[in-house]
Amino acid sequence: MAKLTNQDFIRGSGTTQNRALTVAGLIAAAIVVISIVATAVLYPRITAPSGNELQLVVPALGPGVKTKSKVLLRGAEVGVVKSVDATAPDTVKLKIVLSDEAIKSLTDAVDIDYRPANYFGITAVNLIAKPGGSPLRAGQTLSRADVPDFTMSTMIEHGSTVVDGTLSREMIATLDKVTQYATGLAPLIETMIVISDNVARTQKQLPSTLLAKMNDITDVFPEANKETLRGLDALTNSVFNRMPDGSRGVDEAYHKLMNDSLTVAADGLFGAAGKLLGSHSTELTPFVNSIKVFVDEGPRLLGGPKTMSKLTIAVNKLQSTFAGPPGEQALQLRLVLDSMPSLSQTLASVGLLPGRNYAAGNKKKTAPAQKKAQQKTTGLSGRGN
Fold first, then answer.
1. Residue 219's domain spans which residues?
2. Most buried residue among 81, 189, 271, 363 by CB atoms closer than 10 A?
3. Residues 6+ apart with CB under 8 A from 341
4. pLDDT digits over 177-231, tens only?
5. C-alpha span between 281 and 378 (Å, rounded)
6. Residue 143 sits in the same domain as residue 214
7. At 143, phi and psi to the nearest 5?
């Protein structure tokens, strides 16, 4: 007699339940197998990119390029990589799928390179439109002998190569010295900052006023430059740079003569004088000290700066006594003739004084103040050549 089993979800005898479980297991297995087969066969076709397929034959594959990598045109995504075939020794075949708009805007002159698709460095195939060529068509094969690689990994690799080649022991030692020098200059930089701060605090005039004064200083620069250029021109056109016939060049004979003259002066004159002074230093010391005493007392004997100031005033007054155009200067004199009435009358009679009758004037003097009348010459002058 068959053993009865009781399942919560299956009713009947044990045989019936076993049969039902077996059938359910076979159905589940069949469903799994069908799902796997459908997934393996149908899913690629369902998820396969739609568009126009092209085949690219390139010498190498960019780092990170694989199936479903993006294809870019002018920075926008226009397709994907469908497959990668790297079995050949010297070439790689890439199948890409492009949108209808992209394939219509390109020709077979298109260039190809590898570059990052975003800031994370994910590599993409980049298409570069070029003028000329024939319009692209689906299924066409394009071969390129050179495909530049601008991927992030390549850039990092090249950067590490450069660092390995330049960051040598000598470079490290040089950088260490630069750091030490910069540390040594820190006090100087700090001092300059302190000085600038103090200048800013004690500055009493506006920068515009200071700049105006600076302009006054720079106004003389053009003339200074002209004089400098004239000096350089004089040196360039001097006898040292002229041949005997007047042409430009180096007169070796003249230079040799000058060199010999300087040699004779240095050795024969100054050298002998130096030897003489060196051999009689004991005798020359008292003489030099006595000269120093006289020289030190000279400014005090002359009166110092006050004497020079008075001398300047005297010279200015002397210059002011002459008036008139150049070549016709006249000496200006003012004479008081109170104590010499006879001389005044004589000068008036000959026309050297303005008309005054001293005889009549003396008769009419009645007040004490009129006794002190002064006769002054206003036009007596002497012509100077």
1. 207-236
2. 81
3. 358, 362, 375
4. 888 888 888 888 889 998 888 877 777 777 777 777 777 778 888 888 888 888 8
5. 68
6. no
7. -110, 135
